[in-house]
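so the lab meeting is tmrw and i was supposed to have these ready like two days ago... anyway. pasting both below. for each one the top line is the aa sequence and the line under it is the structure tokens. i havent really looked at them closely yet so no promises
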Amino acid sequence: MILVVAAFIVAFVLLLYMISPLISPKPLKLNGAHVVVTGGSSGIGKCIAMECYRQGAFITLVARDEHKLLQAKKDVEKCAINDKQVVLCISVDVSKDYSQVESVMKQAQEKLGPVDMLVNCAGTAISGKFEEVEVDRFKRLMEVNYLGSVYPTRAVITTMKERRMGRIMFVSSQAGQIGLFGYTSYSPSKFALRGLAEALQMEMKPYNIYVTVAYPPDTDTPGFAEENKSKPLETRLISETSGVYPPDQVAKIVVKDAVQGNFTSSVGPDGYMLSALTCGMSPVTSITEGLQQIVTMGLFRTIALFYLGSFDSIVRRCMIQREQSKASDKRE
């Protein structure tokens, strides 16, 4: 009897696995597509642009620094696969003035055609203890990391709906899945993208527009190097429990997920576990994905509890060391 039940379960899972591709989104072809990348002048954003260019896309790079944009343009152009491809650069702060963002997006579409995929990668990170972070930094991070994704998306979504096609990617962070010591200003701005993406996906799915939220881990970028200069000891020790990934590897994975129409994009085993643990009411694009989340949830929650215990231990040790150091200084 047990063997019959087991055989039935295996057959059912195999059937779902075969049916899954039939109900999943049709992959977006990047060859000839127009891809807009905000925050595309360096780091993950630039690597995403390079990866899309290698697949034949036309690219619009959007960032604030004109000098970095021009250098990024040269780097992206080296990845061309044909002489018809074009890289357009637009300098604008996507977090400040919606009308200006709307204007530059219109300009990009007039030159390279409607946007087939928008990659919202403009962002910044600030770490520090809650009471030590300047109050205006909380506002600034919400502007850059959240509104800096809302404005470009709002500027292209109407055309995508009219065309009944498109991809929208929001580049969040693993700190947008779990709140960690030192990220009281950063994590909320990245968590906000998840809520936006879930609500937007429900609105856009009938129009064949698919939203992807990417949760990259610590990535070897100029922004990460800058953040490390002021990162609290606790934050640094917690971050070191996971690896640092090269940006080109992250770019390949998130581009593949966006093209496939996957809602969640994760990198590495820790990223996979976090995505399964935090899936909640997030949409899935295949039955297989849903089954994997159901089966692994209990195991991953158990592992996560050990991680959380380790993080708490790090914080306590650092606190004790500081108190001992202060006491020693007073005695001297």
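ok protien two:
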Amino acid sequence: MSDSSVSLVNSSIFILKGFPGLEQYYPWISLPFSSIYAMVFLGNCMVLHVIRIEPSLHQPMFYFLAFLALTDLSMGLSTVHTVLGTLWSISQEISLDGCIAQAYFVHGLSCTESGVLLIMAYDRFTAICNPLRYTSILTNHRVIGLLVGILMRSALSIFPAIIRLKWFQYCNPHMLSHSFCLHQDLLRLACSDIRFNSFYALALVIFTLLLDSLLILISYVFILYTVLAVASQEERLKSLQTCVSHICAVLVFYIPIIGLTMVHRFGKHLSPLVHVLMGNIYILFPPLMNPIIYSVKTQQIRSRLKKWFSLKV
């Protein structure tokens, strides 16, 4: 490819869609979206703040939760400018480089969240199935190693597919399906050979999201087997209650991803509004719900918040 053609491709401008056919209602639609983003930022910052200031929460389970909150916060920060920019009619345009960067963060953070949920499952497995060795297994050094490993896996595994988007030619109308950029959306507009990206993306889903979910399921099979072996029903319930928050977070993360994947693969006949709705649920639902889940279901965080707000009142 010549220098002039590379320059032409790199200067491509893409148009972000919000809700097709509902443009006149954007001022009203922007109100719930602005509220959701505010809740995402406040909720995850609150979780991070509580974990930071409460000494009793300085343990592996809550270090992983803090990393999950940081991931959700980053997801909100990576999409808020284009989503609200579109709804507020500030700008519906995004450059190719900006679109590639946003797609990298969106997919990378999704991979990171999947990995964090996996090591949180490992944390619960260790705490319930091997409680006497919990502190010796999940040392601070090992916790840091697990988190760095998950972060490096996400950053490096996503890069080969995303960086190739820069060198594609986009000869189809530059209209994106969402108000943010996704890898599969850019592929749809490309007229270059996209076979590597298609196969690589499929392999990545299998070896990250699918494998992570399978390992989470296996860990809970062992957890359930261990819990059922406990004689006391009260101890069984107590053990399972420590897993409720994590199970809810897993469902909140994987169900929207499965839904969005099914819509992109098999829902081409569906209304564009369905695609837009599923895309926004995929981006916003986990960051919105995780702070609520852990604030309601985790006794230590709930107690700290009650104490905090009672002092404020």
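from a quick look at the 2nd one: The chain has a mean pLDDT of 88. The CA atoms of residues 244 and 297 lie 7 Å apart. will dig more after coffe
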